[in-house]
């Protein structure tokens, strides 16, 4: 085994990670797993970077909605543009909260706005806008660039796994192409290993080989039971390590390992109000299931020496 977890406190979470990596990489171990089968999957929002007071992608979407209202003021009377125009973050946050509780009535309205907001945009233009937002935008309460809101212990874990022959993937409910614009820089995970939600795409012929554009219809919403399906369709292997932080990650955690392979399932618990945020909303079922399922709960407060690069 190579690499260290210097940003992790000594404790059960670090010990379980190190023990698991040692067992699956030791050719003499009964739990040895060949490198090609060492697949690790990670949620993004709330697992690899900060998701409060709202997911970074939602802030990007709100910016797009306000631009649309400026061009067409009548949109200010319709949701979700109305919420964006009025700064009604309770409505927007409620959409995500209700989704975690199993009620998609509001999130469907939000998703409809997203589809309309980006329809016709080329994938290159979207990637450029996403990257510009993430590299220039500042978190509203942490006062740091969005790309500096990644959790350094988790980035260290990704590098530790890579150094020991794992292939790491991000499997998130967030938009695939939004994440792709910075994941190589922030995590060392290239675009082809990002599995996320997406709008449908279409090809438009033209000079220079044509363009790929977003259509005004959904493709996949990569959350809950869809995550294992998307892992298999995109990766073609069952992971042996999975890490998430919410109810939407339950099925992905259960899918890791299966009946015949060793597995490690990590669940990040946000319990550090001083360095980040303290919340369990949207993770209640996952946290309740963790003891019986044998998942390792990672406490931000107790397991991480630092949260961000300088704290």
Strand-helix topology:
Layout: H1 12-25, E1 39-42, H2 56-71, H3 81-86, H4 89-100, H5 105-118, H6 123-136, H7 152-163, E2 167-175, H8 176-180, H9 183-187, E3 194-204, E4 211-220, H10 226-235, E5 241-244, H11 250-255, E6 264-271, E7 278-279, H12 284-293, E8 296-299, H13 300-303
Parallel strand pairs: 1-2, 1-5, 2-3, 5-6, 6-8
Antiparallel strand pairs: 3-4, 6-7
Description of the molecule:
With 311 residues, the chain is an alpha/beta fold. Helix content is 41%, strand content 17%. The protein has helices spanning 12-25, 56-71, 81-86, 89-100, 105-118, 123-136, 152-163, 176-180, 183-187, 226-235, 250-255, 284-293, 300-303, and strands spanning 39-42, 167-175, 194-204, 211-220, 241-244, 264-271, 278-279, 296-299. Strands 1, 2, 3, 4, 5, 6, 7 and 8 form an 8-stranded mixed β-sheet that branches. Helix 2 crosses helix 5 (105-118).
Query: How are helices and strands ordered from N to C?
Result: HEHHHHHHEHHEEHEHEEHEH
Structural class, from helix and strand content?
alpha/beta
Give the total of beta strands: 8
Strand content: 15-25%
**Helix content estimate:** 40-55%
Major sheet details: 8 strands, mixed
- Total helices: the number is 13
- Gross morphology is globular
* Multimerization status: single chain
Round the mean pLDDT to the nearest integer and report it: 94
The stretches of 5 or more residues where confidence is low (pLDDT under 50) are: none
- Write down the Rg: 20 Å
Termini distance?
28 Å
């Amino acid at each position: 085994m190579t690499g260290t977890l210097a940003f992790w406190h000594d404790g059960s979470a670090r010990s379980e990670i190190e023990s698991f990596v040692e067992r699956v990489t030791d050719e003499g171990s009964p739990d040895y797993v060949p490198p090609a089968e060492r697949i690790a999957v990670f949620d993004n929002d709330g697992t690899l970077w900060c998701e409060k007071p709202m997911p970074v992608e939602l802030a990007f979407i709100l910016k797009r909605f306000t631009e649309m209202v400026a061009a067409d003021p009548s949109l200010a009377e319709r949701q979700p543009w109305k919420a964006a125009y009025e700064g009604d973050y309770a409505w927007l946050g409620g959409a995500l909260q209700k989704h975690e509780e199993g009620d998609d009535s509001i999130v469907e309205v939000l998703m409809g706005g997203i589809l309309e907001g980006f329809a016709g945009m080329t994938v290159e233009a979207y990637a450029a806008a996403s990257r510009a937002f993430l590299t220039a935008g500042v978190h509203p309460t942490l006062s740091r660039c969005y790309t500096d809101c990644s959790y350094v212990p988790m980035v260290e874990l990704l590098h530790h796994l890579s150094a020991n022959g794992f292939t790491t993937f991000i499997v998130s409910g967030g938009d695939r192409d939004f994440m792709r614009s910075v994941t190589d820089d922030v995590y060392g995970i290239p675009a082809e290993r990002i599995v996320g939600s997406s709008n449908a795409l279409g090809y438009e012929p033209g000079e220079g080989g044509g363009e790929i554009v977003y259509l005004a219809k959904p493709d996949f919403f990569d959350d809950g039971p869809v995550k294992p399906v998307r892992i298999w369709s995109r990766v073609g292997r069952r992971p042996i390590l999975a890490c998430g932080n919410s109810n939407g990650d339950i099925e992905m955690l259960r899918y890791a390992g299966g009946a015949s392979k060793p597995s490690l399932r990590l669940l990040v618990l946000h319990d550090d109000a001083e360095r980040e945020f303290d919340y369990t909303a949207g993770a209640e079922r996952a946290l309740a299931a963790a003891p019986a399922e044998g998942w390792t709960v990672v406490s931000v407060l107790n397991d991480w020496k630092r949260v961000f690069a300088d704290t």
